[in-house]
Specification:
By secondary structure, the chain is an alpha/beta fold. The protein contains nine helices and nine strands. The chain has a single domain, classed as Vaccinia Virus protein VP39 (Rossmann fold), CATH 3.40.50.150. The chain is globular.
Length: about 270
């Protein structure tokens, strides 16, 4: 995008998604994996390199470090011990592959809206050929999508800003999860807590009960856990609580408010 285009984009009230998903792999994602992830962290763990300590709930890695987001995801899987896990927006498949390596008894799947993303995942992890598939979370719910006890996203919903698409994606995540939803996202990009509560109160979730918790990885990364059952984590009640102590962009928070304001929840009530 040109400099003029960027300036115009920042002044718009209504936004498109952060990327063109048709060219995302070549334009941005492949480069970010190489330059931002693999330059500092272990992206693909080998057998025996990862271990989970049930006593502390932490994950350790030999000969290197995991990205804090990846660490939080693996730690929550270890603590919750679901029978199945599905990643929405699985990209290059590293999280799915590392989960399968660390927890071989758990069934892992992944979905992404870009075929080039899935091609990259299978290229990096040939063993995932039967575990990943196309899934556009902003489409109406599909009964063909994989169900799992735990459904999670990592740096996915934060990039969705077109119309009410991120609300659709949130509802689809909950409605395809049997027990848990985990969000590991940039918390300044959407009012996640307020949006989740509005979707729940508007009748957009099929869960009879939902508990929302603030979860923190061993390196301090924060996430949102939605659970059908009560858990021993701090209750999460507001976006201010989620953002407490974090540096954030005023422009992004303004955009988050505008995104939240364009949704209409639930049916109209008869007078």
């Amino acid at each position: 995008m040109s400099l003029l285009g960027r300036l115009i984009y920042k002044t718009r009230k209504f936004y498109d998604d952060d990327f063109d998903w048709n060219t995302y792999t070549a334009d941005s994602y492949a480069r970010r994996v190489k330059n931002d992830i693999e330059s500092e962290f272990v992206a693909i763990a080998q057998d025996g390199q990862l271990s989970f300590d049930a006593a502390t709930g932490g994950v350790t890695i030999q000969n290197g470090a995991l990205h804090p987001n990846a660490l939080l995801i693996l730690e929550m899987i270890g603590q919750l011990q679901p029978k199945s896990v599905h990643e929405v927006g699985c990209g290059g498949g590293d999280h799915v592959a590392n989960g399968k390596t660390l927890y071989p008894a758990i069934r892992f799947t992944g979905g992404d809206r870009g075929q080039t993303q899935l091609d990259m995942a299978v290229q990096r992890h040939p063993e995932l050929a039967d575990c990943v598939g196309l899934q556009d979370l902003t489409m109406p719910f599909s009964h063909h999508w994989p169900r799992a006890e735990l459904v999670y996203s990592q740096a996915v919903l934060m990039h969705i800003h077109t119309a009410v698409s991120h609300f659709v994606a949130l509802a689809n995540m909950v409605n395809s999860a049997d027990r848990f939803v985990l969000l590991v996202e940039n918390v300044q990009c959407h009012n996640f807590v307020a949006d989740i509560n509005a979707l729940r109160e508007g009748g957009h979730f099929n869960w009879p009960e939902m508990n929302m918790y603030l979860v923190t990885g061993s390196t301090g990364t924060r996430g949102i856990l939605l659970s059908k059952e009560k858990q021993d984590f701090p209750l999460l009640t507001s976006d201010a609580q989620l953002r407490e102590g974090a540096k954030y962009s005023k422009r992004r928070v303004v955009r988050a408010d505008e995104d939240s304001a364009r949704a209409i929840f639930g049916p109209a009530k008869a007078g």
